[in-house]
Amino acid sequence: MSAGQRPGVQAAGPSHVAVIMDGNGRWAQLRGLPRHEGHRRGLEALRRTVRNASDLGIEILTVYSFSTENWRRPAAEVSFLMTLLKHFIEKDLTELGAAGVRVRVIGGRSDLAPDLRRLVEHAEATTRDNTGMTLVVAFNYGSRDEIVRAARRLASDVAAGRIDAGAIDESSLSERLDTADLPDPELVIRTSGETRISNFLLWQAAYAEFVFTPVLWPDFDRAALEEALTEYRRRERRFGGVSEPSGRNVGVA
Ligand code: FPP
Predict the structure, then answer these.
(1) How confident is the model over 192-249, as pLDDT tens digits?
(2) What residues make up the domain containing 95?
(3) Which of 114, 135, 217, 247 has the most CB atoms less than 10 A away?
(4) Is there a domain that residue 3 lies in?
């Protein structure tokens, strides 16, 4: 079933929504709580958003949960975020699987602890054949790192004679990204009032619409998600004209 046929979603989509979940620290600070409490509540907001997105007919939800730059945070915070991912996979996998959600993790794997890597692989393998929403967790993810890794693969393929350097085109690179088999996001949402892309899906978001909301991530709820979708569709209508079946306008910069 396509997004256009699901209740609550107009034919205009978006079918792939990506979210920069920002503001956990500020949410905690405003309440005089430690930062990790903000992340813990951020995980609850993530669970809620997965349910809401699926309910609203979104086909792919990509969330930025740990960037390649986040390693610079205090060791205790890094370790807490690692534990949160572990916890999320271990505790939520059964429920996600039962809801038909397909889990994917993008980002560098070699820096992850072996037990976390195994968990990630297990989550992907056990949900691979699910047909509901795809949840893409960007963890230890940075766009520049992803593009560098793809360029390395391309260089090895050229060196091994599998591809001719002169034949390299956009799809040669995009096929080597972590998102190889995923369509580009049509909408990128960033919470907490910041208006940066912060090394997130630089290649994939080339034609995406951006919605910035002041809501801090732990407070992000169904109304905030619906507001972002409405804003996306309003822009679609305003710039209308020639549209692809996905609902994305073409020929409009
Ligand atoms: C940005 O807020 C948020 C993060 C770096 C982590 C995002 C993590 C979650 C939403 C919890 C779910 C986690 C996993 C691993 C599944 P910030 O800490 O930069 O907030 P601030 O800018 O207000 O300090």
Answers:
(1) 999 999 999 999 999 999 999 999 999 999 999 999 999 999 986 555 566 555 545 4
(2) 16-144+185-232
(3) 217
(4) no
**223 occurs within a structural domain:** yes
> Which residues pair with residue 188 across a beta bridge?
18, 210
The tens digit of pLDDT for each residue in 64-102 reads 999 999 999 999 999 999 999 999 999 999 999 999 999
Q: Which atom of ligand 1 lies closest to the CA of 70?
A: 5
The residue among 160, 102, 87 whose CA lies nearest residue 135 is: 102
The CATH number for 87's domain is 3.40.1180.10
At residue 241, the pLDDT reads 63
Cα distance between residue 214 and residue 8, in whole Å: 24
Cα–Cα distance for residue pair 110/143, rounded to 1 Å: 16
Taking the centre of ligand 1 as the mean of its atom positions, its distance from the CA of residue 89, in whole angstroms, is 16
Write down the mean pLDDT value for the chain: 91
How far apart CA 154 and CA 161 sit, in angstroms, is: 11
Q: For residue 90, what are its two tokens? A: 């271990």
Residue 240 domain-assigned? no
Q: How many domains does the chain have?
A: 1
Q: Is residue 228 part of a domain?
A: yes
Q: Which residues contact 113 (CB under 8 A, 6 or more apart)?
A: 82
Question: Among all residues, which ones are annotated catalytic?
Answer: 22, 70
Q: Write out the two tokens for 234.
A: 């309003």
Ligand 1 centroid to Cα of residue 100, in Å, is 26
